[in-house]
Structure formats: structure tokens, C-alpha cells
Write a structure and sequence with these properties.
This protein has 238 residues and is α/β, with parallel strands linked by helices. The chain has two domains: 4-86, Winged helix-like DNA-binding domain superfamily/Winged helix DNA-binding domain (Arc Repressor Mutant, subunit A); 94-237, Endonuclease, Chain A. The chain is built from eight helices and twelve strands. The chain has an eight-stranded mixed sheet, with helices on both faces. Helix 1 packs across helix 4. The radius of gyration is 20 Å and the shape is elongated. The chain starts with 15 loop residues before the first helix and ends with a strand.
């Protein structure tokens, strides 16, 4: 999953607290989200070449209690800390998705994005299911062509996805699905002929966890458009 810190260069921060928050998010995963001051300092020193210490990391995190929570297992990055990182982004169009608000994410945030799309819509998402089709139904214009490139179709109960896709098409939605099974398909994004939106989480699970969607530049869009088209050509169509 793409993280806020993936979009930022830790070496551009003059403030140690921002560097510490960056490192804390980089270290975090689905299986571990708490780390000691020593863990964070070592990551900054050994991996990033940033000169610091455990004591300095501890002071940086604790001078503003809301950005990280501390217990005996270590520090955990909190929402204010993530927002502070997000504020350092050079990108003007950033949508922060709060945790446990899937309805708002799928029916407000995505609605704003889909409404602004022009021409053919291209979606890349490694994992899709009937909820992905529901997002298309609720947020897109049926007059627009939509291509969805994926690695895995979650079909539970068996046959449900095919039925929902057939129903969607019967109502006039121009939806194509391409399955590209290579392991290098891992990014989640939406693009049209002018914009490129990178999502930190799969669309069907948007709002279950804290995440973000950020609008990147034309150079990224052009590069990813070529990648999308090349993978689409060799994908298995559903």
C-alpha cells in the first residue's frame, strides 16, 4: 500500500519531528505499528543517513503529544501526525480518508473525483470485487468508457461478480475488466486524459483504514498511461 511518506523526501525536512514522523510511517505495516525510539533513530541513521539519536527522536515525538501515541510497546503514528506529514506534500489536490468512514469515502470523496474525470476512465486496482462495481455504478457517468485493470477478482459467492458485471452492462455502463496476473501490479490509481489520482488503498476497501488519494503531475500520468496500456494489451478480458 502506498504511504504518505512514499511521496516525500525525508532529506527535505529541516525539522526532526517531521523526519521522525516520516520514519515512523515508513516502518509501520499491517502487522506492526509501534516502534521504539531506538528503532526509529536506527532507521533514520542507517537507512536514510540522517544524523540523530534515540533521545532526540523521543523529544521530537513527545513535544507534541497528539502526533504519536506512546505505550510500553513503543510509538504509534496517529491521525494528526499523518495530517502533518500530508501538509508537507507538494501536491495541491490531496484527499485524506478517515478510518471507519467507508460510506463517506465511497460516496463523497470518490464522487468528487469521478465527477471531474473527462473522457475514458482508466482504473488500476490489484483487488476488485462487487463493491468495486458498486463504486462505478454510484459515481460514474454511464456514457463514459471505463477500463479496470486488476490482478485478482474476489468472487464470493462464486459467480456473484460475473452476475453483477452483466447487470451493470445491461444498464448501459461501458465497463471492461482486464486481469493482469503479474506480481508487479500493485499500485492503485484512477486516471483520465488529463488527471492522475493515486490511492493509498484499494477502492473497494476505501474508508476502512486511514488513507489518502493524491493528484499527481502530468509526467507521472503519461508514464503510467503507457504502463497501463501495455498491461491492458496482454491482460485477459472478462
Amino acid at each position: 500500500m502506498t504511504k504518505i511518506s512514499d511521496l516525500l523526501d525525508v532529506h527535505t525536512f529541516s525539522d526532526l519531528q517531521l523526519q521522525t514522523l516520516w520514519a515512523l510511517e515508513q516502518l509501520s505495516s499491517n502487522t506492526q505499528d509501534r516502534f521504539s525510539g531506538t528503532d526509529i533513530a536506527n532507521h533514520l541513521i542507517e537507512t536514510c543517513g540522517v544524523s540523530t539519536s534515540r533521545q532526540a527522536v523521543r523529544y521530537a515525538l513527545e513535544r507534541e503529544k497528539s502526533v504519536a501515541h506512546k505505550n510500553k510497546s513503543g510509538y504509534k503514528l496517529m491521525e494528526p501526525g499523518k495530517k502533518k506529514l500530508l501538509a508537507q506534500s507538494q501536491y495541491d489536490k490531496v484527499i485524506f480518508i478517515e478510518a471507519n468512514k467507508p460510506f463517506s469515502a465511497k460516496n463523497i470523496a470518490l464522487k468528487d473525483i469521478f465527477t471531474g474525470l473527462k473522457g475514458e476512465t482508466l482504473i488500476c486496482d490489484p483487488y476488485i470485487d462487487i463493491n468495486t462495481l458498486d463504486i462505478v455504478f454510484k459515481n460514474s457517468d454511464k456514457k463514459k468508457s471505463i477500463k479496470i485493470l486488476t490482478k485478482n477478482i474476489i468472487d464470493k459467492p462464486n459467480g456473484t461478480f460475473a452476475r453483477h458485471l452483466a447487470d451493470l452492462r445491461s444498464e448501459g455502463y461501458k465497463v471492461e475488466i482486464g486481469v493482469y496476473s503479474s506480481s508487479d501490479l500493485h499500485d492503485r490509481y484512477i486516471m483520465d486524459n488529463k488527471t492522475f489520482w493515486l490511492s493509498g488503498n484499494s477502492l473497494n476497501h476505501l474508508g476502512n483504514k486511514e488513507s489518502f488519494i493524491v493528484c499527481l503531475g502530468e509526467d507521472i500520468r503519461q508514464s503510467m498511461l503507457a504502463t497501463f496500456n501495455n498491461r491492458w494489451k496482454v491482460s485477459s478480458k472478462v
